[in-house]
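dumping this here before i forget
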Amino acid sequence: MERKKKEKDGPGSILKWRKKQKPTEESKPEKVNLEETKPPEAKPEEALKKEPHSEEIKPKEVKQKEPQQKKTKSKTDPVEIDPEEKVGIIARTLLREALESGKAPEKEVNLMQTKDYSSMRFGVDFPLLTKERKERYYAKPIVIRGVEYWMCSEWYIGDKPLLLEWLREKGVIK
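structure:
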């Protein structure tokens, strides 16, 4: 294969094009008289003697925004659940909030500490709540009526209908 040699200074060369260009009046920088642009020099004595402002400085007036009448969701409003949401995420968020906000009565909280009730009501194979940190429980404790509990982290897809049923009964979800 033959390679064509590029002409460095040939007829369509950039070098020749640049050489042909001549500076125009418009492209030349404008001459500036430096004497006119210098600020007037201040005497050192005058710089030290500054007069206080004769005008009073007024604080800016701040307009207070009027509260908008938007309906915001509070933690007590029922929420909609994405059908594709994983059961562990629902338990970690909505069940935790429901328990911490007191949706479960004291008697039910005591039952949630038993394996039988937790298995029947939520489908989990361990007590839903325990007062001591163990394996198979979330690391972050929840506080129900001033008492720390750890919630079971072993959730499976078959447990989702039971969890959603409990959350609907307590008014957490729609």
